[in-house]
Amino acid sequence: MNSNHSKQVGLARIQRPERLQVEWRPLALDACLPSDHRARLVWKYVESLDLSALYGKIRAVEGAAGRNAVDPRILLALWMFATIEGISSARQLDRLCERDLAYLWLCGGVGVNHHLLNDFRTAHGEFLDDLLTDTIATLMHQQLITLETVAQDGMRVRAHAGSGSFRRQATLEKYHDEAREQVKRLREEREQGEDSTASERRHMAARERAAREQEERIEQALEELDKLRKQRERHKKGSGDQARSSTTDPEARKMKMADGGYRPAYNVQFVSDGQKRMIVGVDVSSSGSDDGQMPRMHEQVCKRYGKTPENYLVDGGFTGHQDVTTLEQAGSRVFGPIHGEGRMRAAGKDPYARQKRDTNETFVFRQRMATSEAKNVYRQRPSIAEFPNAQCRNRGLYQFRVRGRKKVKAIALLHAITFNFMRMLHLGIIGT
Fold first, then answer.
1. Tens digit of pLDDT for each residue in 4-36?
2. Nearest to 253 by CA among 233, 230, 225
3. How far apart are alpha carbons 116 and 247 in whole angstroms?
4. Who contacts 334 (Cβ-Cβ below 8 Å, separation ≥6)?
5. Residue 263's closest CA among 407, 394, 161, 402?
6. Mean pLDDT of 240-262
7. How far is Cα 412 from Cα 414, in angstroms, rounded to an integer?
8. Coil, strand or helix: which one is 154?
9. Residue 175 near residue 298 (C-beta atoms within 8 A)
10. Are 348 and 114 in contact (CB under 8 A)?
11. Quick count: other Cβ atoms within 10 Å of Cβ 323?
12. What is the Cα 67 distance to its own chain's centre?
């Protein structure tokens, strides 16, 4: 069989690969990438942004020693393009920058690694927050966005922690004592090993650093556990002694997910504009409930842009008595399902009639939602609020690969900025 195959190959006229031939090819990266490639659009957009805040943090300056820093425009463009393509891993992005033409073009011969990439996207949350504000404020100045009608929705995104990492207070205190002893022991070993080689000293320093970080995470887990226990007792949700906190990501909480299961997650909140369907507000909460989220986001939007939305659209999880009262008093009209409407109808009660606990504002809200005009306004909510969520899900916002609410929010902001960029392209607000 093998001999017949060899004869057939020997008779066939074929082109064989030649990998040892030295060739000189005049080739530029720019000539390899199609002129209409999306990576070029990302780069063009990033070049138009004011990144002076990022350049101001670079310590390598003219006349001083040190290696040149990587241009922040490259790093931002890489992460925006990676987000568009659903890439959320810094290691995967690092590999793509070595072999994929679009990422090679964005790098332009500048070397990056996964540590640099990961640090960049998590260390500049304030800049990303300001960038979101500046983008929307510019569109408002151009009268492309009015914020007359906005909609808020939340989605639970899996945290970078396992369900088995949650521990009660007694276990956490035991782990804390053990971690503290380990840090002490490793510090003593390092101090006694002054005659060790440089490699051994680096190894001991790395072990001590890892142990110290573990101790800090357990300390934070104990602090979060105390907050959770007080919260449970305040809302009378069982014994506070049953509360647990994660040793991996202390700020994460077990939440009910879309499939009905409970897993460690964060609650990502987006507020979107009803005119252009663009994200205008972002927040991340450790609460698995949407109760209490509406006033926080409403206040954020008002402070960001100096304008109070006229109409505020939400689903049933947001329309608690206090939350509706707060927004109505602030000058926004709330549109959403009546809280507990199903139970009231089942009990033969009119959900639009005044209830015992109602404030004047919640009663006005009930009367409003009884009208056909209000129902027509509310029908816009899915297309305004759920559209951005779905797009971000499609681009990989299923699980965070970083830990801690501050870093998680930076990732959520990056998704929002990328989503808005794609919307501006689609609407023709920015040129192609």
1. 655 555 578 888 888 888 888 788 889 999 999
2. 225
3. 25
4. 294, 312, 314, 319, 324, 327, 328, 365
5. 161
6. 84
7. 5
8. strand
9. no
10. no
11. 24
12. 31
Q: What does the block give as tokens for 152?
A: 């808020």
Q: Based on C-alpha coordinates, what's the Rg of the chain? A: 27
Q: Measure the CA–CA gap between 203 and 79, rounded to whole angstroms.
A: 32
Q: Give the DSSP H or E segment for 271.
A: strand 262-273
Query: Residues for the chain: how many in total?
Result: 432
Residue type, 378: Y
b/e per residue 381-394 (b: at least 16 CB within 10 A) = beebbbbbbebbee
**Residue 254 β-bridge partners:** 264
- Residue 239 has φ and ψ, to the nearest 5°, of -75, 135
Residue with tokens 């310590």: 59
Both tokens of residue 379?
Answer: 């029908």
Angle, CA of 263, 298 and 308, to the nearest 5°: 160
Torsion angle in degrees (nearest 10) through CA of 217, 223, 227, 229 = 90
User: What one-letter code names the amino acid at 300?
Assistant: Q
In Å, how far are 9, 141, 226, 400 from 161, measured between CA atoms?
55, 42, 19, 9
Contact (CB, 8 A) for 336 and 319: yes
Identify which of 80, 96, 5 has the alpha carbon closest to the alpha carbon of residue 38: 80
Token output for 29? 């990266």
Cα separation, 267 vs 155, whole angstroms: 6
The tens digit of pLDDT for each residue in 262-313 reads 999 999 999 999 999 999 999 999 988 899 999 999 999 999 999 999 999 9
Q: How many CB atoms lie within 10 A of CB 303?
A: 10
**Tokens read off for 410:** 């930076």
Q: Which of helix, strand or coil describes residue 384?
A: helix
Contacts of 415 (CB under 8 A, 6+ apart): 83, 392, 395, 397
Query: In 202-273, where do the E strands start and end?
Result: 245-246, 253-256, 262-273
Amino acid letter, 159: A
Q: Is 51 exposed, middle or buried (0-12, 13-18, 19+ CB in 10 A)?
A: middle
Instruction: Give the DSSP letter of residue 160.
Output: S
* Coil/strand/helix, residue 156: strand
- 153: enclosing H helix or E strand: strand 149-158
